[in-house]
UniProtKB/TrEMBL annotation:
Organism of origin: Thalassospira povalilytica
Pfam families linked to this entry: 7TMR-DISMED2, HATPase_c, HisKA
Presence of keyword Protein transport: no
Reaction(s) this enzyme catalyzes, per UniProt: ATP + protein L-histidine = ADP + protein N-phospho-L-histidine
Keyword match Lipid metabolism: no
Protein name: histidine kinase
Alphabetized CDD domains for the sequence: HisKA
Length: 676
C-alpha cells in the first residue's frame, strides 16, 4: 500500500533539513577562512609560469631572454623592524637567519612596523630583453628597492615606489608599481625592499617581459574600469529607486555597492592609473574612507536583513552603537588611525558578520517555508564567507594566498547578480501590489459615488415625510386651538423635532456636506442661560430627568447654531445616560474664562470601565476611529465636529472614582447686563 506523509511529519523533516543546511552553511562561513588554501588559484606562486629556476642557496636564476612572467614571491624572505628606525646598513649587517621565509604570500596585517624583504638573484647570462618588476598590492605607501652585487655595500640600483610617491616621481605611471630590471652582468645579487604602509602590509613580486606586462595591464585596466562603471551605475540606480520608493534601506544598499565597488577599483589601481595623483596621500585617503564607509553600511544592512530590531532589541541597540563607532573612523582621514581601524575593527567586523549569518540561519529555521530566507542564505552566506576570509587575511589572522585575496571579487559579482534577481522579484511584487491598490481605489471611488447618490436620494425622501409631519402638526394645532395645554405642548414638540430633523438632513445628508466635510451653520446670538433652560425643558422626560445649574453665567451670550449645538449636547447626554440607568443628570454650566463657557455633563456608573473610557476618547479625539468606537460612539464624533466648527472644544475630565465629565467649551462674550 502506498504511504502518504502527514503534514506534521513533513514540517518536522523540513525543520531538520533547514537546521542541517543552516548548520552546514554556517560551518562553511566559519571554516572557509581557515580551510581555503592555495591549491586552486595560484597557490604559493603558481599562478604564473616560472621561467627562472632556484639554485641551491634559494636564489632566482635568470639566464638569457625572459619569455614569460616569473612569480618571485616564493623566493622572498622577510624581517620585521619593530623599532622602525633601522638603517639600510644595519639591515645589511643582519644574519641570514633574521629573514624568515614564508610558505604563502608574506603578510603582516595592519601594522606601522617597517617590513624588510630580501631576495637573492643569480644572473647566469645577462637578460637580453626588457624585464619589469611589478610590486603589489597597489596601496602600499612606500616601497624602497635596493639592489646590491653580493659582497658590495653600495647599491647598483635603487628606486622609490608606493602610492604616497607623486605620479611624476614614479618610474612608470599606471595602476600598479613597476620598475625596470637594470642591465646586469653575470653574477650574484641581493635585492632589499623596504615597505611602510598604514594599510595591511603584504608583498607580491613578479618579473615580467615588457610585452606580457603590457597585455596583462591592458586587460586588468579594462576589466577594472568596466567593473567600476557597472557597479557605480548599479549603486546609483538602487539609491535613486530607494529615494523614489521611500525605502531608505535600498538607498543605503546602493551606497554600499558604490563604496565596495570603489574599494575594489582602488585596490586594483583605478586612482593611480586614471587620476595619477600628485598629492601623496590621495590614494590612501580615498581607500581608507570608502573602506570604512562600506564596513559601516554593511553593518546597518545586516541589522535590517536579520530583523534583529524586533527580535532582539538590546542586541540591535548595541549593534547600532558598534556601526556608529565604525562610521566614526571616517573622521580620522586615514593615517595611523586607519592602522588602528584595521587592527581592531576589521577582525571584530568579521566576527559581527559571522554572528549575523548565525541569526540568518536561526530565522530560516523559524520559518523554513519562506523562500526569501532561503534566497538570503544563498545570496549572502557565500559572499560573507569570502568577505570574512579577506578581512582575516588583511588583519594577519590567517595566511595570505591568491585565492583568499581574490575570491571576494568573484563572490561579490555573485552577490550582485543574486540581489539583482531578488530586487527584480521585489519590483514585480510591488508593481502587483500597486495595481491591486489602484484597482481597490477605483472600486472604492465608484462605491463612494454610489453611496453619495444614495444619500442624496435618501435626503430627498426624508424631507417629504418630515414636511408632511410638520404641516400635519400645524394643522392639528389650528383645529385644536382650544384644546388642553398638554396636547398643544406635544404638538409643539412634534413640530420642533420635525424642524430640527429636517435641518440635520440638510446639513449631514446634502452633497456639499459630504464633499466638503464642512457644516453649514445658521448662527444666532443666544443667551447661554436661556438656551440651556429651553434645551433641558425640551429634552427631559420621565425616567430620564435632566437638571441644569448655571454658575456666574448671567449676561453671557454665544454666537451659535442652536440646532447643532443642541444635537452635540444631546449626544453627550445620551452617552452619559448609557451608564446612568435612569438616574437624573445634573448639568453644570460654569464660567470657564472671560471668553469661554463650560457645560459639564457627568458620566458615571458601574459599567464605565477603562475600555469604555478609551472608546469615548477615541470617538472624541481621533480622526480615524476603530470599528468598535465607530459603532458605540459615532454621535460623539459628530459632536466634536459641531463644536470644532463653532470654535469650541470637548474635553474628557477624569473624576477618579466618581467617573468622568464630558465638558463642552463654547466661546462667548459678556453683554454687561444680567438677564431679566
Amino acid at each position: 500500500m502506498r504511504k502518504t506523509m502527514m503534514p506534521g511529519h513533513l514540517s518536522d523533516r523540513l525543520h531538520k533539513i533547514a537546521m542541517m543546511v543552516g548548520a552546514v552553511i554556517f560551518a562553511i562561513v566559519c571554516a572557509l577562512p581557515f580551510g581555503i588554501g592555495g591549491g586552486f588559484i595560484g597557490g604559493s606562486g603558481s599562478a604564473f609560469a616560472q621561467t627562472g629556476s632556484a639554485s641551491q642557496n634559494g636564489a632566482v636564476v635568470l639566464s638569457g631572454r625572459l619569455e614569460t612572467a616569473i612569480d618571485l614571491t616564493p623566493f622572498i624572505r622577510s624581517y620585521v623592524d619593530k623599532s622602525r628606525h633601522r638603517s639600510l646598513r644595519e639591515i645589511l649587517a643582519l644574519p641570514d637567519q633574521s629573514f624568515a621565509p614564508s610558505e604563502h604570500i608574506p603578510s603582516f596585517g595592519y601594522t606601522q612596523d617597517i617590513i624588510w624583504y630580501r631576495m637573492a638573484l643569480s644572473i647566469d647570462a645577462p637578460v637580453s630583453n626588457q624585464a619589469l618588476f611589478e610590486f603589489a598590492p597597489t596601496y602600499l605607501d612606500f616601497i624602497d628597492v635596493f639592489l646590491f652585487a653580493k659582497g658590495d655595500d653600495q647599491p647598483v640600483w635603487t628606486v622609490n615606489l608606493g602610492d604616497n610617491i607623486p605620479a611624476s616621481a614614479r618610474p612608470y605611471k599606471g595602476g600598479t608599481h613597476i620598475a625596470a630590471l637594470p642591465p646586469l652582468i653575470s653574477g650574484q645579487y641581493e635585492m632589499y625592499i623596504r615597505v611602510q604602509s598604514n594599510s595591511t602590509n603584504m608583498m607580491q613580486l613578479k618579473l615580467w617581459p615588457s610585452n606580457a606586462l603590457i597585455t596583462s595591464l591592458t586587460y586588468r585596466n579594462l576589466t577594472t574600469n568596466v567593473f567600476f562603471g557597472l557597479v557605480v551605475t548599479l549603486g546609483i540606480a538602487y539609491f535613486t529607486f530607494g529615494l523614489i520608493a521611500r525605502d531608505y534601506v535600498v538607498s543605503l544598499y546602493g551606497c554600499w555597492i558604490v563604496t565596495v565597488g570603489a574599494v575594489v577599483a582602488i585596490v586594483n589601481g583605478l586612482v593611480l592609473s586614471e587620476i595619477s595623483p600628485e598629492i601623496p596621500w590621495l590614494n590612501d585617503f580615498l581607500l581608507s574612507e570608502t573602506n570604512i564607509l562600506s564596513h559601516a553600511a554593511i553593518a546597518f544592512l545586516w541589522l535590517y536583513i536579520t530583523d534583529i530590531r524586533k527580535r532582539h532589541p538590546l542586541i540591535f541597540k548595541l549593534s547600532c552603537c558598534y556601526a556608529l563607532f565604525v562610521l566614526a573612523f571616517t573622521l580620522t582621514g586615514g593615517g595611523r588611525y586607519y592602522t588602528w581601524f584595521g587592527t581592531y575593527v576589521v577582525p571584530s567586523h568579521a566576527l559581527f558578520m559571522a554572528m549575523m549569518c548565525l541569526f540568518l540561519v536561526k530565522r530560516l529555521i523559524e520559518d523554513i517555508h519562506s523562500w526569501l530566507n532561503w534566497a538570503y542564505l544563498a545570496v549572502l552566506a557565500i559572499p560573507t564567507a569570502a568577505g570574512i576570509t579577506l578581512q582575516l587575511v588583511h588583519s594577519g589572522w590567517i595566511d595570505a594566498t591568491p585565492l583568499r585575496i581574490g575570491l571576494h571579487q568573484y563572490t561579490l559579482v555573485l552577490h550582485l547578480v543574486g540581489m539583482g534577481i531578488l530586487m527584480a522579484v521585489r519590483l514585480f511584487h510591488m508593481n502587483s501590489e500597486r495595481l491591486s491598490i489602484s484597482r481597490q481605489a477605483s472600486e472604492t471611488t465608484t462605491l463612494v459615488e454610489e453611496q453619495r447618490k444614495l444619500i442624496s436620494m435618501l435626503s430627498h425622501e426624508f424631507r417629504t415625510p418630515l414636511a408632511v409631519i410638520q404641516r400635519s402638526a400645524e394643522m392639528l394645532m389650528l383645529r385644536l386651538k382650544g384644546g388642553t395645554r398638554d396636547v398643544m405642548d406635544r404638538l409643539e414638540r412634534i413640530q420642533l423635532q420635525a424642524r430640527k430633523l429636517a435641518r440635520l438632513v440638510d446639513i449631514f445628508l446634502s452633497k456639499d456636506g459630504i464633499d466638503n466635510q464642512e457644516l453649514s451653520l445658521a448662527r444666532e446670538l443666544v443667551a447661554i442661560n436661556r438656551f440651556m433652560e429651553d434645551f433641558v425643558a425640551n429634552t427631559t422626560r420621565e425616567g430620564a430627568e435632566i437638571f441644569v445649574t448655571c454658575h456666574d453665567t448671567d449676561g453671557f451670550e454665544a454666537f451659535i447654531d442652536e440646532t447643532l449645538i443642541g444635537l452635540a449636547i444631546t449626544n453627550l447626554i445620551e452617552t452619559s445616560r448609557r451608564f446612568a440607568h435612569g438616574r437624573p443628570l445634573h448639568i453644570q454650566v460654569v464660567r470657564h474664562s472671560s471668553a469661554m463657557v463650560e457645560i459639564a455633563i457627568p458620566c458615571s456608573g458601574p459599567e464605565l470601565n477603562d475600555d469604555e473610557i478609551r472608546l469615548i476618547g477615541d470617538a472624541l479625539f481621533r480622526q480615524n476611529m476603530e470599528a468598535k468606537s465607530m459603532r458605540s460612539a459615532l454621535g460623539l464624533h459628530i459632536s466634536q465636529r459641531i463644536v470644532d466648527a463653532h470654535g469650541g472644544s470637548i474635553k474628557l475630565r477624569d473624576q477618579g472614582r466618581l467617573g468622568i465629565e464630558l465638558c463642552l467649551l463654547l466661546p462667548c462674550e459678556e453683554t454687561g447686563a444680567g438677564e431679566p
